[in-house]
């Protein structure tokens, strides 16, 4: 399987059946989903059904992508989603991989694809105020704070980066 893009430690791929076990295990960890509002998959077959019915690539040309380390370890997902007229950057990694800069690397790669391959004008990122790690990722990749909002009883921050603000991948300079 050929990656869409490779970074120093990660590669991004379209969702595939091989991701189901890792995706299910990641979403089963309450630490991972505590700030997402998502529920765990019922089982690996449920995760596989989600992957098989994921149609964002066909509808928009891009989507969320599976992350794998160059050693072949499933490392979560990161990517872009079109909703409500905007494109949103999202990422999720297994808890054991937090704090290593992998979410930042993945987000940089997704932004590169968004601006350089898919010619997007701007990309937003949203994080719950109670999730400082996710907020740091958005700031590290060059997104600027745009505003705050409350949704379903949770306070959120919204960040944005526009194509003319994108300076490329810091780890490739």
TrEMBL record:
A UniProt-annotated Pfam family: Acetyltransf_3
Keyword presence, Nucleotide-binding: no
Gene Ontology molecular functions: acyltransferase activity, transferring groups other than amino-acyl groups
Keywords per UniProt: Ribonucleoprotein, Ribosomal protein
Superkingdom assignment: Bacteria
GO CC terms in record: ribosome
Domain N-acetyltransferase: 10-162
Name the record gives this protein: Ribosomal protein N-acetylase-like protein
Source organism (scientific name): Ferrimonas balearica (strain DSM 9799 / CCM 4581 / KCTC 23876 / PAT)
